[in-house]
Design goal:
By secondary structure, the protein is mostly helical. The protein is built from nine helices and no strands.
Length: 256
């Protein structure tokens, strides 16, 4: 069986799992999402086992796993209608297939040069941000304590940042710089999540703001690892961040 066939089979199984969630009692939804998330890890491991080893290549399991969890939790926050279910299922099916292809490129590129690596970086970057938004949206929807938001945001962002930085490095031994960048930007993300807990913003706006922090951190960190962290690059990322946060500040319901 070819890898592409495994990717198709894995995508179909996981998408079917999401369809089956419609018929479960809502009291079992968290257990069901947990089981589906674990299944996504196992299927990714099965699909990519030829290129994986007991080393940093196992980081490719992170994004498919957290993408499944993000879509699953976010889906249950939406109204249970067919018009919402179909787009979500299509998004997940295409997204998980793209992630399996991307992860495969990373494992191959860890051993030898491959022409598709730049395209894989672009897809991985985009889906990392999408996964971040879905998980942050779920986090803020819980309306938890400010300190819990900060800790949870750091714990969620760290593995996402780690795999994002490793995809540039692609060393079989996890580098100190990759770990340090992941830890620093995860801490910053958690701190900003704590601050946002006190701001009168909606869940969607807060999640978008935190995803912007991930965009800046991931982009700047990857640029540093590629030795392309020029002043112009820094200004561009900070400009995007400034625009988002100024807009969020101006549209917040202060005194409401």
């Amino acid at each position: 069986m070819t890898k592409r066939q495994k990717f198709v089979i894995s995508s179909l199984i996981l998408t079917s799992g999401f369809i089956s969630l419609q018929f479960l009692d809502t009291s079992f939804r968290y257990q069901a999402i947990g089981g589906l998330t674990l299944l996504s890890t196992l299927l990714t491991l099965w699909s990519l086992k030829e290129g994986l080893g007991r080393n940093s290549t196992l980081l490719v399991l992170i994004l498919p796993t957290l993408f499944t969890a993000g879509v699953g939790f976010f889906y249950f926050l939406l109204p249970p209608t067919l018009f919402i279910a179909i787009p979500v299922l299509m998004l997940y099916s295409l997204g998980i297939y793209a992630l399996l292809l991307t992860s495969n490129i990373y494992t191959v590129a860890a051993a030898r040069t491959i022409a598709l690596l730049r395209a894989a970086h672009a897809v991985g970057f985009l889906l990392t941000l999408l996964t971040s938004f879905l998980l942050f949206d779920t986090l803020f929807s819980l309306r938890s304590y400010f300190w819990a938001n900060g800790v949870a945001a750091s714990l969620v962002s760290f593995p996402l940042l780690l795999q994002g930085f490793w995809s540039i490095d692609l060393e079989r031994k996890l580098g100190r710089e990759v770990l340090l960048l992941g830890a620093v930007f995860a801490l910053v993300t958690g701190e900003i999540a704590t601050v946002l807990s006190f701001w009168p913003v909606t869940v969607a706006v807060g999640s978008l703001a935190l995803t912007t922090v991930m965009y800046m951190g991931l982009g700047l960190g990857q640029a540093k690892l590629q030795q392309r962290l020029f002043p112009k690059t820094i200004k561009e990322y900070f400009l995007v961040g400034a625009i988002v946060f100024v807009t969020m500040f101006l549209t917040a319901r202060w005194g409401g």
